[in-house]
Design goal:
Structural class: mainly alpha
Distance between the termini: 65 Å
Radius of gyration: 39 Å
Oligomer: single chain
Helix content: 25-40%
Length: 161
């Protein structure tokens, strides 16, 4: 039986069924207390000799690492001697298409954003009113309400402080 055949579909199981499956494995390994389920599921054993593990550095339990490395080297050499070398790919009969060299790109003009500098907040508001289509908007009454702000003095350099 392959390991894939022995693994249940956890996506279709309820959390209680998953817990019972894990506790059944723990009970088989010798655990006998702390169970919250009956831990009585029948889980088939896997024959350790039927499992093929080809991860680098893996040595089966109970085997000498040097002997295992020698066995693996002999097994790989035997497999390599049985394998036939692959035939080289056939050369194309027609010549490759020549691609013209790329044209040098013309540099883009440097982008400069013109930032209008307003002498005061009132003139900025007036220009904003003109830009939004209200050139006759009277903002003269706002002059007394606008107070000069010195941002460096009121806002700390680090807002967390």
């Amino acid at each position: 039986m392959s390991p894939a055949d022995n693994t249940p579909n956890f996506d279709a199981m309820t959390p209680e069924e998953i817990m019972a499956w894990m506790e059944s494995l723990a009970k088989r390994q010798g655990a006998n207390e702390g169970f919250i389920t009956s831990a009585d599921l029948e889980i088939a054993e896997i024959d350790p000799s039927s499992v093929q593990i080809d991860e680098p550095g893996y040595v089966p339990y109970g085997k000498d690492p040097q002997k295992w490395a020698e066995e693996e080297a002999a097994r790989k050499a035997a497999a390599a001697s049985r394998a036939k070398p692959a035939a080289p790919p056939a050369q194309p009969s027609r010549p490759a298409v020549e691609v013209p060299p790329p044209q040098p790109e013309t540099p883009l003009p440097a982008y400069r954003e013109e930032v209008p500098v307003a002498p005061s907040a009132m003139s900025w508001l007036e220009s904003l009113a003109v830009d939004s289509g209200l050139p006759n908007l009277d903002l003269s009454g706002l002059g007394a309400e606008i107070t000069p702000v010195t941002p460096a003095a009121q806002v700390p350099a680090n807002p967390i402080d």
